[in-house]
Amino acid sequence: MSELLMPKATAVWLVDNTALTFEQIAAFCGLHDLEVQGIADGEVAVGIRGLDPVTNDQLTRDEIVRCEQDKSQRLNLNVPSTKVPQRTRRARYTPVSKRQDRPNAIAWLIKNYPELNDAQIGKLLGTTKSTITAVRERTHWNTQNIAPHDPLLLGICSESELLEELRKARRRQEREEKKAAREAARKAAIKLAASEAAAASAPA
């Protein structure tokens, strides 16, 4: 099933570049109306660069215009007819001039996309798990000077690479949520069966 990638970044772009209502943007991006209003007021998603869903083929210009003209309408996610070919995996090389920026990029990804695991962050930024852990736990030697910074703006990774990792992370989250729901249902069934058995064996 297709899903919107980078919803907050998409919401930032829609707020800045369309006449859609906060409610329409919130419904499309899976956010709360007040969260979108916070984006417009500069209180939410500070530092997140807007992502154009039209160039990303997740929304058409005609669809935006349709909903701008009728505020009661809701945006429909565009489903691309073709799949993006998978790239061959290879180790990431980060130029020496960019390596000093990696802790800032790590902090930015941890803050804005907590669904990414350490392996994915390491793959995107060409860094090690120990460095990511140090930044996450604030034990990095340069913690006091680390400031979250968008790795796309730093030129450490590309937008398409980040989108791909986010897609994987959200699929993983969906699997984990379904597994947790099944486990909760199983435990509830066991508890119910035990209660019924106890009630049946109790003296009248």
Bin the strand percentage: under 5%
Question: What fraction, in percent, of the residue positions are helical?
Answer: 55-70%
- Mean pLDDT across residues: 84
The outline comes out as flat
Rg, Å, rounded: 22 Å
Major pleated sheet: none
Spans where pLDDT lies below 50 across 5 or more residues: none
Order of helices and strands: HHHHHHHHHH
Overall number of structural domains: 2
Helix and strand composition category: mainly alpha
Number of strands: 0
| Tally of helical segments | 10
> How far is the first residue's CA from the last residue's CA?
54 Å
What does this structure look like?
With 204 residues, the chain is an all-alpha fold. The protein folds into two domains: 63 residues, no CATH class; 85 residues, no CATH class. Helices cover 56% and strands 0% of the residues. α1 packs antiparallel against α2 and α2 crosses α3. The model has no long low-confidence stretch (mean pLDDT 84).
